[in-house]
Amino acid sequence: MVRLRLDLSYDGTDFHGWASQVRPGEEESLRTVQGTLERVLSLVLRCAVRLIVAGRTDAGVHAAWQVAHCDVPLSSLEQRSIGGDPSKLVRRLARLLPEDVRVHGVSFAPEGFDARFSALRRNYVYRVTTSPRGALPTRARDTAVWPKPVDIQLMQDSASDLLGLHDFAAFCRPRPGASTVRDLQAFRWLDISTDIEPELYEARVTADAFCWSMVRSLVGACLVVGEGRREAGFALGLLGERSRSSLVPVAPAKGLSLVGVDYPSPELLASRAMKTRNMRTLED
């Protein structure tokens, strides 16, 4: 068996998220990114393929740069069209995958590499417009619309309050047995308005990992402060809670894109994966 690393992107609009919702070998009733990729990879490699991903995106969320890995028999790469070179899969996959999924690269993964557990951090971008006319038609699939004007400085102040290692339970949909402690390393709001795209804002968010709906909840908490619906300090006050807060709106999925995953140097991949697998608490 050999481990392959896949670098890929997708438009999440017409997918029910990343994660396949059926067991291997069964027919998938809902269209997912994982199910689509695994079906085509299994066809090309002539073996069952199961993908592990760096970040399991929700329904409607996009990825400009996602990372996954899979373990396959070396013999599956020894077909004439592949010749033992996994990079040749890129052209094969481009012919068979739908246009809203692209694989940029396939390579032999370094020893100890795990797409999910070896990652140091994930980087997201959220695009949102408050323009009365809505999003530019050519960006309508990746730009959310917020119904009221916002003050970007108030949003930035809220974002800055949340930086650091915290329990983000108030911003996460619960998963049994999962930790909600995360290290939020960057959260920056930018006004990227132009004549053709007025009242357009971008949030750049980086953390070692994110729990379910965390990025969209962080964005939503800032937006309600920016529009004046919540007072300054609203987001900071939620860090003391230990369960999902009903006061935090979840921003629309369409504005969110995973834009990158960072990994340590090859010799640190295995140790990073071992550390990440441990359940983390604030005391740690």
Brief account:
The protein is an alpha+beta fold and 284 residues long. It has six helices and ten strands; from the N terminus they run βαββαβββαβββααβα.
Structure description:
This protein has 284 residues and is an alpha+beta fold. The chain is 20% helix and 25% strand. It has six helices and ten strands; from the N terminus they run βαββαβββαβββααβα. The chain has helices at 33-45, 89-96, 152-161, 214-226, 234-237, 269-277, and strands at residues 2-10, 52-53, 62-72, 101-108, 121-129, 144-145, 164-167, 181-191, 200-207, 256-262. Strands 1, 2, 3, 4, 5, 6, 7, 8, 9 and 10 form a ten-stranded mixed sheet that branches. A hairpin with an 8-residue loop joins strand 8 (181-191) and strand 9 (200-207). Helix 3 (152-161) packs across helix 4 (214-226). The longest helix is centred in the N-terminal third of the chain and has 13 residues, at 33-45. It starts with a strand and ends in a 7-residue tail after the last helix. The relative contact order is 0.18. The model has no long low-confidence stretch (mean pLDDT 93).
- How many H/I helical runs? 6
Mean pLDDT: 93
Radius of gyration: 20 Å
Poorly predicted parts: none
Query: What percent strand?
Result: 25-35%
- Summing up helix and strand content along with how strands pair, one would put the structural category as alpha+beta
Distance between the termini: 36 Å
Order of helices and strands: EHEEHEEEHEEEHHEH
The total of beta strands comes to 10
Inertia-based shape? globular
Sheet of most strands: 10 strands, mixed
Helix content: 10-25%
